[in-house]
Amino acid sequence: MADWKQETRSPRISRFGVRVPPKAILLSPRRPEQSHDSKGGEQEKGKTAVREQEKRINIGDRVRLFGHENKQILLVDVSKCTAREVEEIIRRVPDFVTAQPRSSVLILTDFAGASFDQDALRAIKEAAVFDKPFVKKSALIGTESLPREFHEQMKSFSRRELPIFSSREEALRWLVEE
């Protein structure tokens, strides 16, 4: 059986004044139970649960800080993600951004091959507004699958400059220039 731990921090208040309870964290992976079939061989129970856990995205791989030319860049990688995964990843971004000093965060967001639905698009807009005080610059790449009108809405809704770049190198160059 998996060990669960409730986050110790107190519930936070969302940007809309709604209390957001702490999330439960899985401490150890669930191990499938073993049983014997009629031929004396072992068969795994809970195989589906293990597969589901393996398929879950690893937020640490998708949202992370890395160094580039002596600057810290927050990479938000939603490339090749489903709409549900995009929403889940984007909703975790404020946890990373708000841990940094105000007006200091450089964000590179990669949308290449991602899928979007209304919930994912809403999460992106909300995160863009919520993160604004902490963000110095943001750059977007891989926006071919992002609806153009949504990009314009996102810019006006968040009142942030959100330039689109054709390559990661070009975006990184722009982010680190003073």
Structure in words:
- There is one protein chain.
- The protein folds into 2 domains: 4-55, no CATH class; 59-176, Transcription Regulator spoIIAA (2-Layer Sandwich).
- The protein has helices spanning 47-55, 59-62, 83-97, 118-131, 148-158, 168-176; strands at 4-6, 12-13, 19-20, 24-26, 33-36, 42-45, 63-68, 71-77, 105-110, 135-141, 164-165.
- It is built from 6 helices and 11 strands.
- A hairpin with a 5-residue loop joins strand 5 (33-36) and strand 6 (42-45).
- Residues 1-7, 24-46 and 49-55 have low confidence and may be disordered.
- With 178 residues, the chain is α/β, with parallel strands linked by helices.
- Helices cover 35% and strands 26% of the residues.
- The strands form 4 sheets. It has a 5-stranded mixed β-sheet with strand order 7-8-9-10-11.
Largest sheet: number of strands, sense, barrel closure: 5 strands, mixed
CATH superfamily of the largest domain: STAS domain
Number of domains as seen in the coordinates: 2
Task: Tell me, briefly, the overall form.
Answer: globular
Question: Major sheet: order of its strands?
Answer: 7-8-9-10-11
Assign the structural class, choosing from mainly alpha, mainly beta, alpha/beta, alpha+beta, or little secondary structure. alpha/beta
Percentage of residues in strands: 25-35%
CATH first level of the largest domain: Alpha Beta
Low-confidence stretches: 1-7, 24-46, 49-55
What is the CATH topology descriptor of the largest domain? Answer: Transcription Regulator spoIIAA
Overall mean pLDDT score? 75
SSE topology string:
EEEEEEHHEEHEHEHEH
- The helix tally amounts to 6
Distance between the termini: 52 Å
Helix content: 25-40%
* Name given to the CATH architecture of the largest domain: 2-Layer Sandwich
Please tally the β strands and state the result: 11
State the oligomer.
Answer: single chain
